[in-house]
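Why does residue order matter? Because the sequence determines the fold. Keep that principle in mind as you read this record.
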Amino acid sequence: MKNFASLSLLFILLLSCTGQEVSDQDYQIKTGVLAAPEHQRAEATVLGYNRNGEMVMLREGTNDFVCIADNPTKEGFSVAAYHKSLEPFMTRGRELKAQGLNAKEVFDKREKEVAAGTLEMPDKATLYVSTGDLNEETGEIDNFYTRYVIYIPYATEESTGMPLSPPAPGAPWIMDPGTHRAHIMINPPKN
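Structure:
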């Protein structure tokens, strides 16, 4: 992450008309792709935020990855990347949250929609979530950490052999088994 030092002077945080700090578009792209596997970053689609805090497309990609830049309205640094087959699922989640639904309501609504066939859910796809602390002096992301989510809808402990909680630090386990959002969690140990 040492390459962020050179970005610090080039990419400053801009103050939006709503008072939120929103990163310059180039900075959002450069940091937004960090959750994606390195060989996928250059050609990935990147969604980020405009001065009003609305999600917008910052760069249309040519590969199978969608990256989400850090949300300036939330504390801490968090970016995500996922296979494009998850985009309908992710978009629907953002729509429902914008309507004011809480996490359980979003889950329940998408569960019904996937079961009804009105919301597309891939049979398998991976989400990468990277977090850290933005060092505003250097522009670097300190304490950078990535966890992995492998969606396998309706999978269970019995169908996968995966336990329902991590049996050891960094070991995979299944979360939300038997639902549309069943997924394997892999949380590598933090340094």
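The longest helix spans residues 103-116.
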